[in-house]
Amino acid sequence: MPRDCLYCGGDLDEKMSWGAFFQRDTRLLCDECDGGLLRIEGGCPVCSRPGMDGGLCSDCMEWNRKPEWNGVLERNVSLFQYNEFMKEVLARYKYRGDYVLAKALASFMQTAIPKADLFVPIPLSPERLYERGFNQSKALLTEAGLPCHDLLTRTHTEKQSKKTRRERMTGAQVFRLSETDLSGKKILLIDDIYTTGTTLRHAAILLKKAGAREVSSFTIARG
Fold it and tell me: What residues does the Phosphoribosyltransferase domain cover (predicted)?
């Protein structure tokens, strides 16, 4: 039975290269769409910011200069650069409700996601969840077949995309964590995109205060 690329809708088998022949039962994007996703190589060792050749980026150096934030987030692993193609993919996924793209994005997580005791999706506020219809971070875990631990809740605030970089990095805490003992746990936060790292660090600091041994994060894209 012919299959369609989950992004462009073209015939998946016809648009596959011969080299991908033996993957035709598992791949969800055609070669052309897959080629639009730029993998990150040689990024910042802490946040995966592209083009750093193993050195710390300016954002991570700034976070490290703040004692209250230094070491809160062990590391962020991002798969792809936030190029124009990825911007359109995530816009369709998050803002236009194209849930099926969760399957395509999650397919890249299987061999790349770090091990952890708990996988915690970044939550949406109830208002934002109603607006979008689903939590894009939780959907990635679900489609990747990974356990999902909803430990955090979120208050409703202005969209991060409407804030400046400085406003994002100095924003107030937006998460709540129910009283729970996370002593010794290694936790991995899941989100669709890492931009400044503020959202992930706000989540991480609560988890560390609850006893978590280590908190890292995994995102599809690095902005």
Answer: 138-221
